[in-house]
Amino acid sequence: MAEIAALLEQQIPALRRYAYALLRDHERADDLVQDTLERALSRWALRRPDGDLRAWLFAIQRNLYISRWRQNRRRGAPVAMDEDALPGSPARQETTLEVHDVLAALDQLPEEQKSLLLLVGVEDFSYDEAARILGMPIGTVMSRLSRARQRLRSIVETGRTTLLRRVK
Amino acid sequence: MTGKDAAIREEELQAYVDGRVTGERLVEIEAHLAQHPDVRERVALERRQREALRGQLEGKFAEPIPPRLWIANIRGARRRRWGWRLGAAAAALLLFAGGVGTGWMAAHRIDTAAAHATPATTTVAENASAAYRVFVAEIAHPVEVDARHEAHLLQWLSRRLGKPLVAPDLAPFGYRLMGGRLLPSGNGAAAQLMYDDPTGKRLTVYVRAAEGSETAFRFQHEGETSTFAWIDQGFGFAVTGALSRDELLPIAEAVYHGLGGGQAGAKKD
Prior knowledge:
The structure holds two protein chains of two kinds.
Chain A: H1 2-23, H2 26-42, H3 53-69, H4 81-84, H5 93-106, H6 111-122, H7 127-134, H8 141-167
Chain B: H1 10-17, H2 23-35, H3 37-62, H4 71-88, E1 96-97, H5 103-107, E2 110-111, H6 119-136, E3 145-146, H7 150-161, E4 165-166, E5 176-185, E6 188-196, E7 202-209, E8 217-222, E9 225-232, E10 235-241, H8 245-260
Parallel strand pairs in B: 2-8
Antiparallel strand pairs in B: 1-4, 3-5, 5-6, 6-7, 7-10, 8-9, 9-10
Helix pairs in contact in B: 1-3, 4-6
């Protein structure tokens, strides 16, 4: 029992990070993580003993998000892309934009692309693990990743255009 | 330079962005990028964005785990919940399936004679009434998901029951939806919707999968609690409240009609 708790608790910081990136609301992100942990506890015996715990938990959380949370997501990110970056000093404008806005820009991607970027780029899952968590054919991961990053780039490009116009 | 660099594929560039290319291939890719400034710039931007995203989320990762997510606390809450559930044996939820049969109407009759009730109807009534007793008395957590999240609640329960459900409108009787919960029921799930009136009087609507072709309303009275239950198209329904048979009957009929779709009192929202 204590061992299970220790195993699960090790994963909570990463689960919270993923939940927050999806929901962009601290309270609701913790609600999602709580759901995930409750489900994990209730299904503990059903988990493949040789399977990877972290991937299993992320798959649960992602599925819960898809089925129960996404439709309730609060509309709109708290901070609009081009407004938030304004205080940056002009010399650092580009860096500020690229750095500051990726999380907000992520919101404009379809959930699958968003999750893929988070699982691979932030959570350091292997491409195979990410594919399994997301239920996508392993052979398509790289092309989808490429598309997601391309999309992210173009969103930030658009944001920069807007910003430069406003700064002028 | 063996000409291999010309064959560098997009997926390798993605792996490069993720820092997952090593050894000789890494050298080849970097040589390729050195010769293709447009690709180099694009890949560099993707890397910066990847790093930026990680950086933005670093603080979240570093936060201490709030007590509500401590496993011991989650376990404690689960145990309490399971205690209630085991006590209830099965719970009663009321949900309504959209579009239940109109054929039922033809055969619709009130049947209070226990001899005529099929076991399935009886079981539904008993489960519903057990769940009613457990959860109606609950002060702190009468429902699992409250009515502020009605859409979420109904979607969730519909999914678990395998039948689209709507919450019947009981406003004409002075009852307002409080919320609902999911309950165990045999091998499957049951749903309980709870309503209350301005005085705090509560009633529940319970739905679960059930076999049988019983089409009559079955009435059951236990202590102060009355239940009307029926089976329709693979699902059992029950309406339970601390009401007399005559008070509860019109409510049960409204619930039934709410499910029947179309002809019955259109919901005013």
